[in-house]
TrEMBL record:
<feature type="region of interest" description="Disordered">
    <location>
        <begin position="341"/>
        <end position="367"/>
    </location>
</feature>
<dbReference type="InterPro" id="IPR046335">
    <property type="entry name" value="LacI/GalR-like_sensor"/>
</dbReference>
<dbReference type="InterPro" id="IPR001387">
    <property type="entry name" value="Cro/C1-type_HTH"/>
</dbReference>
<keyword id="KW-0678">Repressor</keyword>
<feature type="domain" description="HTH lacI-type">
    <location>
        <begin position="6"/>
        <end position="64"/>
    </location>
</feature>
<dbReference type="InterPro" id="IPR028082">
    <property type="entry name" value="Peripla_BP_I"/>
</dbReference>
<keyword id="KW-0238">DNA-binding</keyword>
<feature type="compositionally biased region" description="Basic and acidic residues">
    <location>
        <begin position="358"/>
        <end position="367"/>
    </location>
</feature>
<feature type="domain" description="HTH cro/C1-type">
    <location>
        <begin position="3"/>
        <end position="30"/>
    </location>
</feature>
<dbReference type="Pfam" id="PF00356">
    <property type="entry name" value="LacI"/>
</dbReference>
<keyword id="KW-0805">Transcription regulation</keyword>
<dbReference type="GO" id="GO:0000976">
    <property type="term" value="F:transcription cis-regulatory region binding"/>
</dbReference>
<protein>
    <submittedName>
        <fullName>LacI family transcriptional regulator</fullName>
    </submittedName>
</protein>
<dbReference type="InterPro" id="IPR010982">
    <property type="entry name" value="Lambda_DNA-bd_dom_sf"/>
</dbReference>
<dbReference type="GO" id="GO:0003700">
    <property type="term" value="F:DNA-binding transcription factor activity"/>
</dbReference>
<dbReference type="InterPro" id="IPR000843">
    <property type="entry name" value="HTH_LacI"/>
</dbReference>
<keyword id="KW-0804">Transcription</keyword>
Length: 367
């Protein structure tokens, strides 16, 4: 039969002291006006050793006002499936940071997924209360839920740049604007003048930032943007060739491998005839895939930085509760962190073909 769990009451009875005294010895501190003699302390320690008592860590943490548990919530399915490891580096970074900080992680997975997307509504709000704070990540977040967390002062950090009313939403993101500008500059330095952007222009923050970087860099060079707005690979390849584009930038979710395959099927070499730069790592890299030129997203570092920021917000929130809501000790500049995206040399960028005195057709975007 399993043995009954030893409690502080058992330890107190063996040592001949109160349960409060056992708690004071375990916690290593005593309230003002309370003194525990060395002989009494030793009796408690001997009783703990003899009984084999082990403290309940969650109870100890709750007694201190914090659980030392930080949550992780993803709006999409998290664990890798069939080579899908988009969230993997984020989780590795988060785990490493948790080890250094000495905190535990709780992955919130019970929220029902509808259409492949989770929500915090209903029981989700109560479940978040188990943790001192939470990391949020995903491509299709609910802005209303984020605003609710801000309004209720629940400590959280979003992994990925996100905006909010008043700029109060804390995040650690990738600097897609600057990274995309650098890719366009790389292409113009190689001699390209007809550079397109391939992909549907959605309203998600990464796409908005990539488009901004693309537009800004072309404007600085006095060049005209050309958007190939379709998620159909065959149609995209056809438009690239019809517009005489010698280079394109492509987000990883827009099927870059298939696009390059289709271009080559139509007789255009990559990068000999059309250079293709990838704005981030492939989401689902192909085993025999190309060595893409472009930039990489520092996902592991983002996970580390996000957890460190969350731990500071949690500690600051606890201090403000004890010190009548004093001003936050976390500077505003640290609430919004954008990390550099390193360039990747790759093998899909090259100078344009010799005959490049062609002009894109009138389907280019004049703005």
């Amino acid at each position: 039969m399993p043995r009954r769990r030893i409690t502080q009451t058992d330890v107190a009875a063996m040592a001949g002291v109160s349960q409060a005294t056992v708690s004071f010895v375990l916690n290593g501190n005593t309230p003002a006006g309370v003194r525990i003699g060395e002989e009494t302390r030793q009796r408690v320690l001997d009783a703990i050793r003899i009984t084999g008592y082990t403290a309940n860590p969650l109870a100890q943490r709750l007694a201190g006002g914090l659980t030392q548990i930080l949550g992780v919530f993803t709006y999409e399915a998290t664990f890798p499936r069939a080579g899908r490891d988009f969230y993997g580096p984020f989780l590795v970074g988060i785990e490493h940071a948790a080890e250094r900080l000495g905190v535990d992680l709780l992955l919130f997975t019970s929220a029902p997924a509808t259409g492949g997307r989770r929500q915090l509504t209903r029981d989700g709000w109560q479940r978040l209360g188990v943790a001192d704070g939470c990391l949020l990540l995903g491509q299709h977040e609910d802005r209303g839920e984020l605003q609710h967390l801000l309004d209720t002062n629940y400590p959280f950090v979003f992994i990925g740049k996100r905006g909010s009313d008043g700029g109060r939403l804390p995040y650690v993101g990738a600097d897609y604007v600057e990274a995309t500008m650098r890719q366009v500059d790389r292409l113009t330095a190689l001699g390209h003048r007809h550079i397109g952007y391939v992909g549907v222009r959605g309203t998600d923050q990464p796409t908005l930032d990539r488009v901004e970087g693309y537009r800004t860099a072309l404007k600085a060079q006095g060049l005209t943007p050309s958007f190939v707005e379709t998620d159909d690979v065959a149609a995209a390849a056809g438009e690239i060739l019809a517009r005489s584009l010698t280079a394109v930038v492509v987000a990883p979710e827009n099927h870059p491998e298939e696009l390059a395959d289709e271009l080559e099927r139509r007789g255009a070499r990559v990068p000999g005839d059309v250079s293709v730069l990838l704005l981030g790592q492939p989401h689902h890299p192909r085993r025999d895939g190309r060595r893409w030129s472009g930039f990489s997203v520092p996902r592991e570092e983002m996970g580390v930085r996000a957890l460190y920021l969350l731990s500071r917000l949690v500690a600051d929130d606890g201090k403000r509760d004890r010190e009548t809501r004093r001003a936050s000790a976390v500077p505003d500049a640290e609430l919004h962190q954008l990390l550099n995206c390193p360039d990747v040399e790759g093998a899909t960028a090259a100078p344009p073909p010799a005959a490049t005195d062609r002009t894109p057709d009138d389907r280019t975007d004049p703005t």
